[in-house]
């Protein structure tokens, strides 16, 4: 099929490449405008732009895809279908109905659960045992269109937002190719989403990484995994920032002592939470690299009773 592909981050790249490898003609890659990066404000390309240029696919980077001139530009490509994967802009009804087969979205959850911008992180944050990818026929709502196909993925006990991101990206690539084949041969089925089961998740923010020690050890441990690699989970000790990269939830303790160091020796550092205790396994002091907790304890004086 003749495809216009819309996507921006790393998640989208395996999907784009899988479509090319399956023999489809990707006539245009649409992605977000270049962004300034770092102190020098050098221009940073999106992952999709980089991949598209490597594959010699024309790239289009509109600030607002809904503008009339943008719609007109898309129309000139006479695409059979548009495939959207984490593009980052809302499409107008005029765009959604433009191609012969409409627009198909690859969404990183089992819709209607976890509609919205950050379904991958929230699956970890909420302690889900399984999640997955859904291909959906897009409509004017946010992730509300008919479900085409799904694939399910089990979460590992040590699953992070980053590791799940990679798994769902690869699963989404396979599912997208399969869905397009079924669309093309007329065997795809469309299933309405059950609104009563819908949940919505918003953007992940940097502020979400701060630890609230009155929460349970289980919640904080999930926070550490779910927000890895970005924005990371952090607390403060002796007025200095300390990032937490790996921990284990333990039972017991006194919830009235939340945030206090309850056990420390050469190899372990255990902190009381609002329910249970948290054994810190990998940390990153401000201005330093990530390190196992035993290495951290060799360089920092920590005493029982000190408070995070």
TrEMBL record:
InterPro entries: Fmt, Formyl_trans_C, Formyl_transf_N, Formyl_transf_N_sf, Formyl_transferase-like_C_sf, GART_AS, Met-tRNA-FMT_C, Met-tRNA-FMT_N. One of its GO terms (molecular function) is methionyl-tRNA formyltransferase activity. (6S)-5,6,7,8-tetrahydrofolate binds at residues 109-112. Residues 1-179 form the Formyl transferase N-terminal domain. It is an enzyme of class 2 (transferase). GO terms for cellular component: cytosol. Keywords: Protein biosynthesis, Transferase. Residues 204-300 form the Formyl transferase C-terminal domain. It comes from the Bacteria. It catalyses: L-methionyl-tRNA(fMet) + (6R)-10-formyltetrahydrofolate = N-formyl-L-methionyl-tRNA(fMet) + (6S)-5,6,7,8-tetrahydrofolate + H(+). Its EC number is 2.1.2.9. The keyword Protein biosynthesis applies. Attaches a formyl group to the free amino group of methionyl-tRNA(fMet). The formyl group appears to play a dual role in the initiator identity of N-formylmethionyl-tRNA by promoting its recognition by IF2 and preventing the misappropriation of this tRNA by the elongation apparatus. Belongs to the Fmt family. NCBIfam families: fmt (TIGR00460). This is Methionyl-tRNA formyltransferase. The gene is fmt.
